[in-house]
Write a structure and sequence with these properties.
The chain has helices spanning 17-24, 28-36, 54-68, and strands spanning 14-15, 44-46, 49-53. By secondary structure, it is of the alpha+beta class. Helix 1 packs across helix 2. The chain has a 3-stranded antiparallel beta sheet with strand order 1-3-2.
Length: 69
């Protein structure tokens, strides 16, 4: 097997809390607070780290825009 060739779909990009905070324009602490309160963009745990699927974060923002309409 040649590791230089891609055989499947590209993995979805994962963002760390700092990336998401920068994208949303909020402090990282706010993301952690939202997680404890069970709202905010969905995240997953990779080992001891929180990671966010970029597409899920963008989808969450879009759903928030619909709530305001």
């Amino acid at each position: 097997m040649d590791l230089g060739q891609e055989t499947g779909p590209s993995p979805m990009p994962l963002w760390c809390a700092e990336d998401v905070a920068r994208y949303l324009g909020v402090p990282v602490k706010t993301l952690y607070k939202w997680r404890l309160e069970q709202h905010g963009p969905p995240c997953l745990r990779v080992g001891k780290h929180l990671r966010y699927v970029a597409e899920d974060v963008v989808g969450w923002v879009e759903s928030r825009k619909q709530h305001l309409s």
